[in-house]
Amino acid sequence: MIGRIQGVVVEKNFPQVIVSCQGVGYEVDVPMSTFYPLPAVGQEVTLLTHLVVREDAHILYGFGTQEERALFRNLLKVSQIGPKIALSILSGVSVEGFATLVKLQDTAALTKIPGVGRKTAERVLMEMKDRLDALEQAAQGMNISGTVPMTPSSTEGEAWTALVALGYKPAEVTAMLKPLAGSGGTTEELIRRALQGTVRPQ
Predict the structure, then answer these.
(1) pLDDT (tens digit per residue) in 39-65
(2) What's the number of domains the chain is made of?
(3) How would you write 88-103 as a 3-class SS string?
(4) Is residue 200 part of a domain?
(5) Is pLDDT above 60 for 10?
(6) How far is it, in rounded angstroms, from Cα 143 to Cα 184?
């Protein structure tokens, strides 16, 4: 099992990033929450990974924090949930936000994530309810070394991180920043433009 990868970012094309390690380029699929804070191409990155072995392929998934990887692995234990849906859930809601959805059994909110239908949402919320305590305990037991340092390398990455910290969902932030890609300006200006006409999360 490949549990961690460290190398140079050579290509970024969501949801995939290619990391070169001693001359070998590894294709790694990542959620949005990991993708946006990634360093620029040519800079070094460290990702926590999970390897999924299929008959026709070996697919490597990467995460910026232990909490994200732990949630991904627990989602894979849910019946009929594969890596693609698990990655979509991680891209659409933060780990903390997901825990809240499970506690509230909020099916409607989970179905807003692309690829997650009502039956799938109900199954995920029901089965994850029993695993939530263990997941939270694991998160609480992690120290600072559980977070992989990935300093945002661009104003877009810094803005994305800041908006998520303000309470917006990762998918919402992505939609807010998409029209502003390549528009230039400082991080503060980008955040200000993204917030124009946007309702503050409750």
Answers:
(1) 889 999 999 999 998 888 899 999 998
(2) 3
(3) HHHHHCCHHHHHHHHH
(4) no
(5) yes
(6) 36
Cα–Cα distance measured from residue 92 to residue 140, given in angstroms and rounded to the nearest whole number: 22
Write down the pLDDT at residue 17.
Answer: 95
Tokens representing residue 33 in the block: 């929450």
Query: What CATH number corresponds to the domain at position 46?
Result: 2.40.50.140
Q: Phi-psi category of 200—alpha, beta or left, where left has phi over 0 and alpha has psi -120 to 50?
A: beta
70 and 134 inside one domain: yes
Task: Return the residue matching tokens 């994530």.
Answer: 113
Report how far apart, in Å, the C-alpha atoms of 20 and of each of 11, 24, 28, 144 are. 9, 5, 11, 26
CA separation for the pair 151, 36 (Å, rounded): 10
DSSP labels, 11-51: EEETTEEEEEETTEEEEEE--HHHHTTPPPTTSEEEEEEEE
Residue 121 phi/psi, 5-degree rounding, is -60, -45
Domain that holds residue 109: 66-142
Same domain assignment for residues 43 and 77: no
* Gap between the terminal Cα atoms of the chain: 41
Question: What are the structure tokens assigned to 5, written together?
Answer: 């990868």
201 within a domain of the structure (yes/no): no
Question: Does residue 58 form part of some domain?
Answer: yes
The domain spanning residue 166 has which CATH number? Answer: 1.10.8
